[in-house]
Amino acid sequence: MTLPTRIWTELDFHAEGKQEGYLRLPISNDDSGGGFIPIPAISVKNGPGPRLLLQAGNHGDEFEGQIMLMKFARRVKAEDIAGQLFILPGINAPAVEAGRRTSPVDGANLNRVFPGLADGTPTSMIAHFLTTEMLPRVTHVLDFHSGGRSMEFMPSAHIFRPDDPVKYAEGLRILRTFGMPKSLIMEGRTGHEQKFTTVCQNAGVLHMSTELGGGGRVSLPALRAAEKGLVRVLKDLGALKADWDAEPAPTTTFYRRQNHRKNVFATARGIFEPFFDLGEWVEAGQPACAIHFSETPWRAPEVLTFKESGIVLAKRAIARVQIGDGLLIVGQPLDDAEICLALA
Protein backbone atom coordinates (compact mmCIF):
# COMPACT_ATOMS: atom_id res chain seq x y z
CA MET A 1 0.00 0.00 0.00
CA THR A 2 1.37 3.44 -0.98
CA LEU A 3 0.86 6.06 1.73
CA PRO A 4 -0.01 9.65 0.73
CA THR A 5 2.74 12.22 0.91
CA ARG A 6 3.24 14.17 4.13
CA ILE A 7 4.61 17.16 2.19
CA TRP A 8 2.02 19.88 1.62
CA THR A 9 1.85 23.14 -0.31
CA GLU A 10 -0.34 26.21 -0.73
CA LEU A 11 0.19 25.99 -4.49
CA ASP A 12 -2.75 24.80 -6.57
CA PHE A 13 -1.20 22.65 -9.28
CA HIS A 14 -4.48 22.70 -11.22
CA ALA A 15 -4.69 26.50 -11.38
CA GLU A 16 -3.87 28.54 -14.47
CA GLY A 17 -1.22 31.26 -14.29
CA LYS A 18 2.06 31.60 -12.41
CA GLN A 19 2.33 30.70 -8.72
CA GLU A 20 5.31 30.91 -6.40
CA GLY A 21 5.55 29.36 -2.96
CA TYR A 22 6.86 26.37 -1.05
CA LEU A 23 6.59 22.65 -0.69
CA ARG A 24 6.49 22.18 3.08
CA LEU A 25 8.55 19.28 4.39
CA PRO A 26 7.49 18.45 7.96
CA ILE A 27 10.26 18.45 10.53
CA SER A 28 10.35 18.15 14.31
CA ASN A 29 13.70 18.52 16.03
CA ASP A 30 15.37 20.36 18.91
CA ASP A 31 15.28 23.68 17.05
CA SER A 32 11.85 23.39 15.43
CA GLY A 33 9.24 21.21 17.06
CA GLY A 34 6.41 20.57 14.63
CA GLY A 35 7.76 22.90 11.96
CA PHE A 36 8.54 22.52 8.26
CA ILE A 37 11.47 22.97 5.87
CA PRO A 38 10.51 25.23 2.92
CA ILE A 39 11.32 23.93 -0.56
CA PRO A 40 10.85 26.72 -3.16
CA ALA A 41 8.47 25.77 -5.97
CA ILE A 42 7.00 27.53 -8.98
CA SER A 43 4.06 26.39 -11.12
CA VAL A 44 3.42 28.03 -14.50
CA LYS A 45 0.30 26.84 -16.35
CA ASN A 46 -1.29 28.03 -19.56
CA GLY A 47 -3.85 25.73 -21.12
CA PRO A 48 -3.13 22.43 -22.84
CA GLY A 49 0.38 21.42 -23.87
CA PRO A 50 3.47 19.60 -22.63
CA ARG A 51 3.96 19.18 -18.90
CA LEU A 52 7.54 19.36 -17.66
CA LEU A 53 9.37 19.21 -14.34
CA LEU A 54 12.49 21.41 -14.33
CA GLN A 55 14.62 20.48 -11.35
CA ALA A 56 18.01 21.28 -9.82
CA GLY A 57 19.59 20.99 -6.40
CA ASN A 58 19.17 17.22 -6.04
CA HIS A 59 22.68 17.62 -4.64
CA GLY A 60 23.23 20.90 -2.85
CA ASP A 61 26.83 21.42 -4.03
CA GLU A 62 25.91 21.47 -7.74
CA PHE A 63 25.27 25.08 -8.60
CA GLU A 64 24.88 25.71 -12.34
CA GLY A 65 21.39 24.18 -12.55
CA GLN A 66 20.23 26.04 -9.45
CA ILE A 67 21.34 29.39 -10.90
CA MET A 68 19.82 28.63 -14.30
CA LEU A 69 16.40 27.67 -12.93
CA MET A 70 16.24 30.63 -10.52
CA LYS A 71 16.90 32.98 -13.44
CA PHE A 72 14.42 31.15 -15.67
CA ALA A 73 11.71 31.17 -12.99
CA ARG A 74 12.04 34.92 -12.54
CA ARG A 75 11.80 35.52 -16.29
CA VAL A 76 9.06 33.19 -17.46
CA LYS A 77 5.41 34.30 -17.50
CA ALA A 78 2.30 32.21 -18.01
CA GLU A 79 1.68 33.71 -21.45
CA ASP A 80 5.17 32.59 -22.52
CA ILE A 81 4.32 28.91 -22.35
CA ALA A 82 1.85 26.26 -23.44
CA GLY A 83 1.01 23.49 -20.98
CA GLN A 84 2.60 23.49 -17.55
CA LEU A 85 6.07 23.88 -16.05
CA PHE A 86 6.90 22.83 -12.51
CA ILE A 87 10.16 24.53 -11.48
CA LEU A 88 12.08 23.28 -8.44
CA PRO A 89 15.44 25.14 -8.38
CA GLY A 90 16.56 23.56 -5.08
CA ILE A 91 14.57 20.39 -4.49
CA ASN A 92 16.87 19.11 -1.74
CA ALA A 93 16.53 22.36 0.21
CA PRO A 94 18.52 21.35 3.33
CA ALA A 95 21.49 20.26 1.19
CA VAL A 96 21.16 23.34 -1.03
CA GLU A 97 21.29 25.75 1.93
CA ALA A 98 24.29 23.88 3.35
CA GLY A 99 26.06 23.63 -0.01
CA ARG A 100 26.48 19.89 0.52
CA ARG A 101 25.90 16.80 -1.57
CA THR A 102 23.98 15.13 1.25
CA SER A 103 21.34 16.52 3.57
CA PRO A 104 22.56 17.89 6.91
CA VAL A 105 19.20 16.87 8.38
CA ASP A 106 19.56 13.11 7.98
CA GLY A 107 22.85 12.58 6.12
CA ALA A 108 21.07 11.04 3.11
CA ASN A 109 21.83 11.42 -0.60
CA LEU A 110 18.52 12.23 -2.31
CA ASN A 111 19.56 10.49 -5.53
CA ARG A 112 20.10 7.22 -3.65
CA VAL A 113 16.78 6.87 -1.80
CA PHE A 114 14.15 6.65 -4.56
CA PRO A 115 11.30 5.84 -4.70
CA GLY A 116 11.27 7.10 -1.12
CA LEU A 117 8.86 6.63 1.78
CA ALA A 118 5.94 8.81 2.85
CA ASP A 119 6.83 8.25 6.50
CA GLY A 120 10.60 8.00 6.05
CA THR A 121 13.41 10.42 6.83
CA PRO A 122 13.10 13.97 5.43
CA THR A 123 15.19 13.10 2.35
CA SER A 124 13.13 9.97 1.74
CA MET A 125 9.94 12.04 2.01
CA ILE A 126 11.23 14.37 -0.73
CA ALA A 127 11.92 11.36 -2.97
CA HIS A 128 8.46 9.96 -2.26
CA PHE A 129 6.83 13.32 -3.12
CA LEU A 130 8.64 13.47 -6.46
CA THR A 131 7.72 9.85 -7.23
CA THR A 132 4.05 9.96 -6.27
CA GLU A 133 3.02 13.59 -6.68
CA MET A 134 5.16 15.08 -9.45
CA LEU A 135 5.83 12.29 -11.94
CA PRO A 136 2.11 11.53 -12.55
CA ARG A 137 1.69 15.20 -13.56
CA VAL A 138 4.46 15.41 -16.19
CA THR A 139 5.65 13.90 -19.45
CA HIS A 140 9.29 15.06 -19.28
CA VAL A 141 11.87 15.76 -16.56
CA LEU A 142 14.91 17.98 -17.09
CA ASP A 143 17.11 17.31 -14.06
CA PHE A 144 20.22 19.49 -13.83
CA HIS A 145 23.32 18.12 -12.10
CA SER A 146 27.03 18.96 -11.92
CA GLY A 147 30.05 17.18 -10.46
CA GLY A 148 29.63 18.62 -6.99
CA ARG A 149 32.56 19.48 -4.74
CA SER A 150 34.49 16.27 -5.27
CA MET A 151 34.28 15.69 -9.05
CA GLU A 152 34.79 17.72 -12.22
CA PHE A 153 33.00 16.70 -15.43
CA MET A 154 33.24 17.65 -19.04
CA PRO A 155 30.06 19.71 -19.64
CA SER A 156 27.55 17.18 -20.92
CA ALA A 157 23.94 16.04 -20.96
CA HIS A 158 22.84 12.45 -20.64
CA ILE A 159 20.04 9.93 -20.64
CA PHE A 160 19.86 6.39 -19.32
CA ARG A 161 19.09 4.19 -22.28
CA PRO A 162 15.46 3.03 -22.02
CA ASP A 163 14.27 -0.32 -23.35
CA ASP A 164 11.61 1.41 -25.47
CA PRO A 165 13.19 2.36 -28.85
CA VAL A 166 10.69 5.22 -29.30
CA LYS A 167 11.69 6.73 -25.93
CA TYR A 168 15.35 6.20 -26.81
CA ALA A 169 14.97 8.07 -30.09
CA GLU A 170 13.15 10.92 -28.33
CA GLY A 171 15.91 11.10 -25.73
CA LEU A 172 18.57 11.30 -28.44
CA ARG A 173 16.69 14.10 -30.18
CA ILE A 174 16.46 16.05 -26.90
CA LEU A 175 20.20 15.60 -26.33
CA ARG A 176 20.90 16.91 -29.84
CA THR A 177 18.60 19.87 -29.26
CA PHE A 178 20.09 20.65 -25.84
CA GLY A 179 23.44 20.77 -27.60
CA MET A 180 26.10 20.29 -24.92
CA PRO A 181 29.59 19.49 -26.30
CA LYS A 182 29.23 15.88 -25.13
CA SER A 183 26.09 13.77 -24.88
CA LEU A 184 26.28 10.60 -22.81
CA ILE A 185 24.28 7.39 -23.00
CA MET A 186 24.30 5.64 -19.65
CA GLU A 187 23.94 1.87 -19.62
CA GLY A 188 23.97 -0.75 -16.89
CA ARG A 189 22.18 -0.55 -13.56
CA THR A 190 24.89 -0.44 -10.90
CA GLY A 191 23.19 1.61 -8.19
CA HIS A 192 20.69 2.79 -10.80
CA GLU A 193 17.64 1.39 -9.00
CA GLN A 194 17.71 4.05 -6.27
CA LYS A 195 18.08 7.02 -8.62
CA PHE A 196 15.46 9.45 -9.87
CA THR A 197 15.96 8.33 -13.45
CA THR A 198 14.68 4.83 -12.59
CA VAL A 199 11.38 6.00 -11.13
CA CYS A 200 11.01 8.29 -14.16
CA GLN A 201 11.50 5.35 -16.51
CA ASN A 202 9.08 3.21 -14.47
CA ALA A 203 6.49 6.00 -14.79
CA GLY A 204 7.02 6.34 -18.55
CA VAL A 205 8.47 9.86 -18.12
CA LEU A 206 11.43 10.85 -20.27
CA HIS A 207 14.33 11.98 -18.05
CA MET A 208 17.30 14.04 -19.25
CA SER A 209 20.07 15.07 -16.91
CA THR A 210 23.37 16.94 -17.10
CA GLU A 211 26.86 17.21 -15.68
CA LEU A 212 27.71 20.92 -15.90
CA GLY A 213 31.15 21.14 -14.30
CA GLY A 214 31.99 20.58 -10.66
CA GLY A 215 34.66 21.14 -8.07
CA GLY A 216 32.31 23.28 -5.98
CA ARG A 217 32.60 26.07 -8.56
CA VAL A 218 30.32 27.56 -11.21
CA SER A 219 31.45 26.87 -14.78
CA LEU A 220 30.42 29.94 -16.77
CA PRO A 221 30.74 28.24 -20.21
CA ALA A 222 28.66 25.27 -19.03
CA LEU A 223 26.04 27.52 -17.43
CA ARG A 224 25.65 29.63 -20.58
CA ALA A 225 25.47 26.55 -22.81
CA ALA A 226 22.82 24.97 -20.58
CA GLU A 227 20.75 28.18 -20.50
CA LYS A 228 20.65 28.23 -24.29
CA GLY A 229 19.95 24.50 -24.43
CA LEU A 230 17.01 24.80 -22.04
CA VAL A 231 15.32 27.39 -24.27
CA ARG A 232 15.89 25.21 -27.36
CA VAL A 233 14.43 22.10 -25.73
CA LEU A 234 11.36 23.91 -24.38
CA LYS A 235 10.73 25.43 -27.80
CA ASP A 236 11.24 22.09 -29.55
CA LEU A 237 8.77 20.35 -27.21
CA GLY A 238 6.22 23.10 -27.75
CA ALA A 239 6.31 24.23 -24.12
CA LEU A 240 7.83 27.67 -24.78
CA LYS A 241 5.95 29.79 -27.31
CA ALA A 242 7.43 33.20 -26.45
CA ASP A 243 9.82 34.76 -28.93
CA TRP A 244 12.93 34.15 -26.85
CA ASP A 245 16.25 34.04 -28.68
CA ALA A 246 17.33 30.47 -29.36
CA GLU A 247 20.66 29.92 -31.09
CA PRO A 248 20.91 26.85 -33.32
CA ALA A 249 22.16 23.82 -31.43
CA PRO A 250 25.91 23.25 -31.81
CA THR A 251 27.12 19.81 -32.80
CA THR A 252 27.22 17.31 -29.96
CA THR A 253 29.32 14.14 -29.84
CA PHE A 254 27.75 11.01 -28.38
CA TYR A 255 29.56 8.78 -25.90
CA ARG A 256 28.70 5.71 -23.90
CA ARG A 257 29.59 6.19 -20.25
CA GLN A 258 31.23 3.09 -18.84
CA ASN A 259 29.75 0.96 -16.09
CA HIS A 260 30.41 2.44 -12.65
CA ARG A 261 32.54 -0.54 -11.63
CA LYS A 262 35.01 0.22 -14.41
CA ASN A 263 35.88 3.67 -13.06
CA VAL A 264 39.27 4.25 -11.49
CA PHE A 265 39.02 4.16 -7.68
CA ALA A 266 41.59 5.04 -5.03
CA THR A 267 43.27 2.01 -3.47
CA ALA A 268 45.16 3.89 -0.76
CA ARG A 269 45.12 7.08 1.31
CA GLY A 270 47.29 9.90 -0.04
CA ILE A 271 47.54 12.67 -2.65
CA PHE A 272 46.01 12.09 -6.09
CA GLU A 273 48.06 12.97 -9.19
CA PRO A 274 46.08 12.53 -12.43
CA PHE A 275 48.12 11.77 -15.53
CA PHE A 276 45.39 12.98 -17.93
CA ASP A 277 43.01 15.90 -18.13
CA LEU A 278 39.35 16.00 -19.17
CA GLY A 279 38.77 15.16 -22.84
CA GLU A 280 42.05 13.31 -23.38
CA TRP A 281 42.08 9.88 -25.01
CA VAL A 282 43.38 6.98 -22.91
CA GLU A 283 43.98 3.29 -23.49
CA ALA A 284 43.01 0.29 -21.39
CA GLY A 285 45.93 -0.73 -19.20
CA GLN A 286 47.58 2.68 -19.47
CA PRO A 287 48.73 4.34 -16.21
CA ALA A 288 45.92 6.69 -15.14
CA CYS A 289 47.16 8.35 -11.97
CA ALA A 290 49.39 8.03 -8.94
CA ILE A 291 48.68 8.20 -5.23
CA HIS A 292 51.55 9.73 -3.28
CA PHE A 293 52.11 9.04 0.41
CA SER A 294 52.72 12.27 2.31
CA GLU A 295 53.60 10.53 5.58
CA THR A 296 56.23 8.35 3.90
CA PRO A 297 57.42 10.51 0.97
CA TRP A 298 60.35 8.16 0.25
CA ARG A 299 57.86 5.40 -0.60
CA ALA A 300 57.11 4.84 -4.30
CA PRO A 301 53.61 6.04 -5.29
CA GLU A 302 50.83 3.60 -6.10
CA VAL A 303 50.06 3.79 -9.83
CA LEU A 304 46.56 2.87 -11.07
CA THR A 305 45.56 1.97 -14.62
CA PHE A 306 42.53 2.44 -16.85
CA LYS A 307 40.21 -0.55 -17.33
CA GLU A 308 38.86 0.65 -20.70
CA SER A 309 39.92 2.86 -23.59
CA GLY A 310 38.09 6.12 -24.27
CA ILE A 311 38.11 9.79 -23.30
CA VAL A 312 38.29 11.11 -19.76
CA LEU A 313 34.81 12.38 -18.92
CA ALA A 314 35.40 13.19 -15.26
CA LYS A 315 38.15 13.37 -12.67
CA ARG A 316 38.35 13.96 -8.95
CA ALA A 317 38.61 17.63 -8.00
CA ILE A 318 40.02 17.06 -4.49
CA ALA A 319 43.66 15.99 -4.23
CA ARG A 320 43.46 14.20 -0.87
CA VAL A 321 41.98 10.71 -1.32
CA GLN A 322 41.24 7.61 0.67
CA ILE A 323 40.46 4.04 -0.31
CA GLY A 324 37.26 3.86 -2.38
CA ASP A 325 37.19 7.43 -3.66
CA GLY A 326 36.20 7.77 -7.33
CA LEU A 327 39.06 9.27 -9.32
CA LEU A 328 38.46 9.01 -13.08
CA ILE A 329 35.55 8.16 -15.41
CA VAL A 330 36.02 7.17 -19.05
CA GLY A 331 33.55 7.07 -21.94
CA GLN A 332 33.64 5.49 -25.39
CA PRO A 333 32.49 7.29 -28.56
CA LEU A 334 29.30 5.99 -30.12
CA ASP A 335 29.30 5.28 -33.84
CA ASP A 336 27.32 7.81 -35.88
CA ALA A 337 25.62 4.95 -37.69
CA GLU A 338 24.27 3.62 -34.38
CA ILE A 339 22.81 7.02 -33.51
CA CYS A 340 21.28 7.47 -36.97
CA LEU A 341 19.75 3.98 -36.80
CA ALA A 342 18.19 4.71 -33.40
CA LEU A 343 16.76 7.98 -34.73
CA ALA A 344 15.40 6.44 -37.92
Structure in words:
- By secondary structure, this protein is of the alpha+beta class.
- The chain has 2 domains: 8-256, Aminopeptidase (3-Layer(aba) Sandwich), CATH 3.40.630.10; 260-343, OB fold (Dihydrolipoamide Acetyltransferase, E2P) (Beta Barrel).
- The protein is built from 7 helices and 19 strands.
- The strands form 2 sheets. It has a 15-stranded mixed sheet that branches.
- The model has no long low-confidence stretch (mean pLDDT 95).
Tags for this entry?
30% strand; 2 domains; 23% helix; 15-stranded mixed sheet; OB fold (Dihydrolipoamide Acetyltransferase, E2P); alpha+beta; globular; four-stranded antiparallel sheet; Aminopeptidase; 344 residues
Strand content: 25-35%
Order of helices and strands: EEEEHEHHEEEHEHEHEEEEEEEEEH
Give the mean pLDDT.
95
Q: Look at the structure and name the CATH superfamily of the largest domain.
A: Zn peptidases
Percent of residues in helices comes to 10-25%
Q: What is the number of helical segments per DSSP (H or I, 4+ residues)? A: 7
List the SSEs and their pairings.
Blueprint lengths: L7 E2 L7 E11 L7 E12 L4 E6 L7 H12 L7 E6 L4 H6 L23 H13 L5 E5 L6 E3 L2 E5 L4 H14 L3 E5 L9 H7 L3 E6 L8 H18 L15 E5 L6 E2 L4 E5 L6 E2 L4 E6 L9 E4 L4 E7 L3 E2 L4 E8 L2 H8 L1
Parallel strand pairs: 4-5, 4-6, 6-10, 8-9, 9-11
Antiparallel strand pairs: 1-2, 2-3, 3-5, 7-17, 8-10, 11-19, 12-19, 13-15, 13-18, 14-17, 15-16, 17-19
Helix pairs in contact: 1-6
